[in-house]
Structure formats: C-alpha cells, structure tokens
Amino acid sequence: MAKTKKRIGKQVEPTQSSNATPTPKLTASSPHTTHLKSIFKNSPAYDLLHYFEKAPDQWAARYILVLSSIILRTAVGLGGHSGYKNPPMYGDFEAQRHWMELTIHLPTSDWYFFDLQYWGLDYPPLTAYHSWILGKLGTLINPDWFSLNTSRGLETSDLRFFMRVSSIVSELACYIPGVLLLANVFGKKFNLSRMDQIIFALIILTQPHLILIDHGHFQYNSVMLGCFVYTIVELVQNHLVMASIWFVCCINFKQMGLYYSVFIFFYILSQLRKFKDLVAVGLAVLVTQLIICFPLPLIGQLLYHKLFIVFSLSIVDYLKIKLPIFGVQLMS
C-alpha cells in the first residue's frame, strides 16, 4: 500500500518538459522594458513623467518633452536680448543679424574682411553658411531686415520674432533630435527603460545655461552642440569615421568646439586598431574640412590669416581660465 501511494505521488509531481518555452529575458529594446527599475526613481523628473510609464503612453511623453522644450525656450525669448537698445555696437543679437546681412549681400571673398570694426565675421565657415541661409529666408519675408549697412541696429518686433524663431528651429533641426538619439543609444547600451531614456533627454534639454544664452542673450550654440552630441552618439557605437566628420562640423560651426578636441582626439586615437582605420579617419577629417571650405575662395589665406588667429585666441582664452587653477599665470 505504501508503495502504491509512493507511485501515485510520483505521478502527480509536475515535470518540466524539455520543450518548455524559456522565460524571455528583458532587454532595452524589449517592449517590456517599462518593468525595469528606474534609476530616476523618487526624482522630480520621474514624478513628473511616471504617469506615461506604460508602453502605449510613452509616445505622448516624447511629444510632451519636445513641446515643453519649445515652450520653455519661447518663454525665455519673450524677454530682452544682448545689447537691446544699446548703441553703437548693440550686442550678440545684432552680431548675428549683421552676419546674415553681409553674407547675403557680399561675395564670399569679402565675408571675413568686411568692416571688421563692426561685428566682423569671426566664426568658422559653417556659421557663415548658416547665417546666409537664415538671411535669405528672412529677406523673403522682409528685405529691410538685412539691407546692407542701413539695417544696422534694427530691433523691430517682427525682426526679433524671426530671429527668435530661427534659433528655436535651428535647435529643433540639430540639437533636440541629437539628444533624443543619444538617450536611445545610451538606453540600449546600459539597459535603461524607455521612461529613463525620456527622463535622460529631459534633463539635458532643460539645462538652463544653453536656454538662457541661445534664447535670452541670443546665439546659435545649439547647432554646434548638436554636432557634438552626434559625435558622442557615433563614438558610443564605435563609428569613428562618422564621429570624426561630426566633430569637424562642430568646430567649423563655432571654434568653442575646440574645448572638446583633446578628449575627442585621444579617444579616437585609442580606438584605432589598424593602420587603415587611422587612414580612414584622417581622410574623413581632411575631406570634410575641404568640402566645408570649398565655397570660400583663397582657402589658404582664410585658414591661416583668419581662422588660425580665431582658433589661437580661443585656446589662449581657455588657458587663461584653466591655468590659474594650477597656480600658473599666462602672460598677456
């Protein structure tokens, strides 16, 4: 009887079939990533967005993030700008407007040599091309905004609106998509949930310094930073050639990008495993630089007479900031 009970007990014991489907592992690309524990738990950003944590609602969180970024920048733009009603030089707002004025009216050979005492163009070529595009678009709306010489110091409300919108559109075209892509790439690499990726992007896009400088003071730093963000995206994916191209674009929009050059240079150098990789990166840098400078005549004169001086001054300014930290003074 005991043996019978034992046999019956064995029959009712559940057995695991060899064909049973294994429990799926969660990955960053899985639709169930919302169940991953958030690294931003109990943070204000998580408290704000956790209502959209369910997968069907996450698309709305992205739209809300972008729209909130636009609203925030627009609100800052309602205030004044650098040099407002402060002649004769006004400020950076006038500098950006003036570069649009001179690039659409003068031949490229004069861009970097026209009236250097009044906001001479001292940024690299991609800034000049960007100014040319915006100047052409603005002229279609109102040619008086950028009439040569006679438009200096113009600060009408419609011009200010156009300039503010151009700054937001430039950021929407380059910086904001780059940040969203960076969050996605980091999410896959470090196994972050989709909600954490959105919060990651939120933290970057609401960084106050860029918002105040670009949309308050008035500049277009977001384009340069967008190129730098794409550089980081490509480096994370080990696409060294594309990273080099993006970084060349970064420093050719604004020389301030040189502040990142030491890190970028040595990181790319450390990732080169074969001589052909070194050649590929070198050719990418050279060809990209030549393409950027091609529309400008007298490339050699421009690079050595103007841009070399601009880049050198940027490095000197950087050293003046950093060297005193180590007790070293730079002679002026």
TrEMBL record:
Its EC number is 2.4.1.-. Belongs to the ALG6/ALG8 glucosyltransferase family. It is a multi-pass membrane protein. PANTHER family: DOLICHYL GLYCOSYLTRANSFERASE, DOLICHYL PYROPHOSPHATE MAN9GLCNAC2 ALPHA-1,3-GLUCOSYLTRANSFERASE. GO terms for cellular component: endoplasmic reticulum membrane. This is Alpha-1,3-glucosyltransferase. Residues 1-31 are annotated as: Disordered. Keywords: Endoplasmic reticulum, Glycosyltransferase, Membrane, Transferase, Transmembrane, Transmembrane helix. The chain crosses the membrane at residues 63-84, 161-186, 240-266, 278-297, 303-321. It is found in: Endoplasmic reticulum membrane.
